[in-house]
């Protein structure tokens, strides 16, 4: 998993509440188990017409936001079904941080497991960031995970909270497999003893 230390980039405003996982990645794109290639289908039903043409008014289709790294949205982001494809699609598009007043629990947890930092802030502060994000290509926001600090386009700073263990995992690029592999020496030692004492398990 890619490390998350300091993220600086354009923030895209999506001032909607109850953005569910079917809106993030519609069900017809859940057939793959690959984490790549889903970015082009992110918000598919809002980004494209039924004929496949881009909807010019949708924020991620606007030139200023096509390379957005941060998404600022409304309450209850990621509600609906628990599909892990939702953070996969966001990450594949290039979104590494989502800022909202609240998140659905399963989606919130899945973000951390896939290298995305979800940040909960009071609605008043999210509204300020939505206003910042509305500046188009000038909406450059920096998220410093070590300092737990967001810096807006005008230099204003907003602090945020994050669970210490999840912070450690993001800073070091550790997903569940990475955490397990940190114990590789102990796993090898255990398997070595088992091979000697119970060789039939390894036949």
UniProtKB/TrEMBL annotation:
<dbReference type="InterPro" id="IPR000573">
    <property type="entry name" value="AconitaseA/IPMdHydase_ssu_swvl"/>
</dbReference>
<dbReference type="InterPro" id="IPR033940">
    <property type="entry name" value="IPMI_Swivel"/>
</dbReference>
<comment type="similarity">
    <text>Belongs to the LeuD family. LeuD type 1 subfamily.</text>
</comment>
<comment type="subunit">
    <text>Heterodimer of LeuC and LeuD.</text>
</comment>
<feature type="domain" description="Aconitase A/isopropylmalate dehydratase small subunit swivel">
    <location>
        <begin position="1"/>
        <end position="123"/>
    </location>
</feature>
<dbReference type="Pfam" id="PF00694">
    <property type="entry name" value="Aconitase_C"/>
</dbReference>
<keyword id="KW-0432">Leucine biosynthesis</keyword>
<dbReference type="InterPro" id="IPR015928">
    <property type="entry name" value="Aconitase/3IPM_dehydase_swvl"/>
</dbReference>
<dbReference type="GO" id="GO:0003861">
    <property type="term" value="F:3-isopropylmalate dehydratase activity"/>
</dbReference>
<dbReference type="InterPro" id="IPR050075">
    <property type="entry name" value="LeuD"/>
</dbReference>
<comment type="pathway">
    <text>Amino-acid biosynthesis; L-leucine biosynthesis; L-leucine from 3-methyl-2-oxobutanoate: step 2/4.</text>
</comment>
<keyword id="KW-0456">Lyase</keyword>
<comment type="function">
    <text>Catalyzes the isomerization between 2-isopropylmalate and 3-isopropylmalate, via the formation of 2-isopropylmaleate.</text>
</comment>
<protein>
    <recommendedName>
        <fullName>3-isopropylmalate dehydratase small subunit</fullName>
        <ecNumber>4.2.1.33</ecNumber>
    </recommendedName>
</protein>
<keyword id="KW-0028">Amino-acid biosynthesis</keyword>
<keyword id="KW-0100">Branched-chain amino acid biosynthesis</keyword>
<dbReference type="InterPro" id="IPR004431">
    <property type="entry name" value="3-IsopropMal_deHydase_ssu"/>
</dbReference>
